[in-house]
Here is the input.
Amino acid sequence: MVSKPFVHDAANSGEEREMPIFALENPVFLTYLIASAIMVLKVMGQGWMTVYRMMKINGGYASPEDLKTGLINKSPSPSQLEVNEYVDRSRRMHRNDLENVPAFWIAGLLFVLVDPAVWLAQILMYGFVLARLAHFWAYATKRTHEVRATFYTLGSIIVIYLAGHALWVATM
Amino acid sequence: MVSKPFVHDAANSGEEREMPIFALENPVFLTYLIASAIMVLKVMGQGWMTVYRMMKINGGYASPEDLKTGLINKSPSPSQLEVNEYVDRSRRMHRNDLENVPAFWIAGLLFVLVDPAVWLAQILMYGFVLARLAHFWAYATKRTHEVRATFYTLGSIIVIYLAGHALWVATM
Amino acid sequence: MVSKPFVHDAANSGEEREMPIFALENPVFLTYLIASAIMVLKVMGQGWMTVYRMMKINGGYASPEDLKTGLINKSPSPSQLEVNEYVDRSRRMHRNDLENVPAFWIAGLLFVLVDPAVWLAQILMYGFVLARLAHFWAYATKRTHEVRATFYTLGSIIVIYLAGHALWVATM
Here is the structure.
């Protein structure tokens, strides 16, 4: 068990010195920050995709009070509360995000804190982002279950690896 | 790209010194800690609101085994497994929290790590807390879709800004 | 309000020195890392339990396109899109995880940052892991509502305590 509060930084300076983990000059942390921030935008964007779809078809609402007449809903009808596949697809995509992305945020943070190799962090974290964007594409465009499952699997394995790697370094 | 592992602290001392990001004396981090902890209590409280509502109406249960006679359910009936609007409202509120709050937790952390202005952090983070508490009020008291959507929008834009700001500082 | 960017470490050395919070030699952080990483594996594993159950009964699918013939689904039928209790149980377990575990991840991190006693961190964090594993067991094996609720309550109280403790230390 080796303490890794600081990372070794010999790249910019000729001499050796130590750098805090959370410095932007630490390329592992920078990778984590970029990947995590993109995934925040992805998850929040999914909420807005649901809003867009509800507005577009004027339905797929979830609460009885959404049938009150107002700016959002100018001519209410009980059928607007029925499950609508177009809107529900976006909600399912959102749920799938929630099942995978928060775990990535924390597993990625733990991974950064055990000071991994830069190339490994980049492959895994940008790989996760790409896998999830591909999953979004596959789900939104109704690709086959096999295509969607492939991207889900890739993202899931990366998160499991990040957590397993951190656990291994911390306990071995 | 500037490293920000420590923040500049000239407030308390006459001389300049650096302070770690995660010190409670860093007002940006303190703001994040307070806002995040309040949101933890909010999200966990939502679970207890669902429990309270299930107990109160003795229904809205989700699993077949909840129909076994016991301390919680003294006179079971199959109708207790039907979706109950009073209970389901609390579940929808919980889902809405899960779609917004974990993203705030991580976007806020990334924001802290790029060392923003204190006033900006306070406006955004306490603004998020207020927007979500107002969303809770609007949802629980069945305000119109417009009112609920306004508070949702405010919270969502803040999270998107936090992540976008961190991404900008890290990459520009 | 006391700054705790570093923890006091007199255990290994005869002399006093300070150690960063996020060092693996800080037993509070090590406890957090281990507990959080185990919970990442638990949450991701729940996704795979859902996949396993869908494959086993060849049903409980969520999207219309899952009825296309392919490697996963060799003889499609509309009934495969109906809610299936065996699969839905795993989805409910997953939802329950999402309502509790991300809040633990962040509350635990805030707790670490206010530098608590090691024994307290170990009891609370390993206690949370055990409570959630017991909740998994109770839900998967259809124990009574009382048994499941007991483990839910234990996990929930721990998360609330972690956030409340951090909030107290930060503001008092």
Remarks:
- Residues 27-57 of chain A form the longest helix (31 residues).
- DSSP finds four helices and two strands in chain A.
- Confidence is low (pLDDT under 50) at residues 10-17 of chain A.
- Chain A touches chain C at residues 1-6, 20-21, 85, 89, 92, 98-100, 102-103, 106-107, 110, 113-114, 139, 142-146, 148-149, 152, 156, 159-160, 162-164, 166-167, 169-171 (CB under 8 Å).
